[in-house]
Amino acid sequence: MSFYxxxxxxxxxxxxxxxxxxxxxxxxxxxxxTGAVLEIGSGAGPNLQFYDPERVTKLYALEPSAGxxxxxxSAVVSAPVPVEVLDAPGEAVPLDSASIDTVVLTFTACxxxxxxxxxxxxxxxxxxxxxxxxxxxxASPDAGIARWQGRIEPVWKVLAGGCHLTRRPDALxxxxxxxxxxxxxxxxxRTPKIAGFVYAGRALRPx
Length: 207
Hints:
The chain is α/β, with parallel strands linked by helices. About 35% of the residues lie in helices and about 25% in strands.
């Protein structure tokens, strides 16, 4: 891991993914988590404050970046639910199959190198009938913006820790065998449109 990735990028990502409108979206999604929860790409812990201690029995916060885990340390200590931090990538979750009630994905699927493998792992650890709560930015339905996303993405990935602008979270979730129960889409206010079109909702692992 380079100096930039370990020491600078965590601050850049935390600032970008912790702005007011994105935090508002997190606050709308995360409280619906129940039971044993796996958060993939927990970063500096921006979601921790939103977990409901009356609904969540334990949170596994999976984060492969040492820099991000360092930034998350204080948030983990003050979290309202029990947290176990997992040093592992989303493509190799160190948990038993069918052991998790809720998987949380918020503004992280864009950066996972093999996102299909990570979603396969999410399905593996989910109990039948378990839920994936998601809020992810991705490809815009507007042709002009989508063209710019494709043009900018190669440079954007280098600067933003591998972040993809053109992924379709809904198609990826469905491709992993999940059933989208509800979903809202739209641009986050006061966010550049190339990175601000968000897909948010709930998907289920068929029982």
